[in-house]
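Workshop exercise sheet. Pairs work together: one partner reads the sequence aloud, the other fills in the structure field after running the prediction. Swap roles for the next sheet.
Pair: D.N. / O.F.
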Amino acid sequence: MISEEENNNHERLRALSDVLDGLEKATHDESIAVQEVIEELGHKSFASLMLIFSLISTSPASAIPGVTAMVAAIVFILVMQMILGRRCVWLPAFITRRQLSTAKLCKGISWLRKPIHFIESFLKPRLTFLFHRPWIYLPLVLVLGLTLFMPFMEIVPTSGSIASAVIAFFAAGLLTRDGALVLASLILLTGIPIAAWQFGFAP
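Structure field:
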């Protein structure tokens, strides 16, 4: 018989695929509103929403004009609410009304399936003290800072997608309670703004 703890761990390890399933379930017609994504994933799913929107910016769906800036704004607001201890997600109407192309989203979801499945095989709950205060504040503040750079990263090809991928790693760590993944994202978070500046703006 599978214990409750083993069942919970299995659910955590499937969390990344479940997020993709939720987004795919929400798609319909020619476009989908951000509000519909929130309603499908849940108003308390900060990590799930952070993961899915950062993955959108990492996938081929990032070709949609302004997606990187929109994702940066969403993640910034989500992280601020997490730091302040808010229990339910709130996003301003100008973001929740934003429409995303269903065709491009589905293409992005399909593209993400294989790497997500591969990553899930390595994830497990560990170093869980990192998800408690004050430790959790450090990566949250770094993600917050990174989102301020992301709109400008659209000038540097692929840099916005790389930044979004690092945020996705952090969100995946939160969902699966994998502190090792959070530590890896922490190291990457400190280096991305410096690298983007060095290669994109420095003389």
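Discussion prompt: The two ends are 63 Å apart (CA to CA). What would you look at next?
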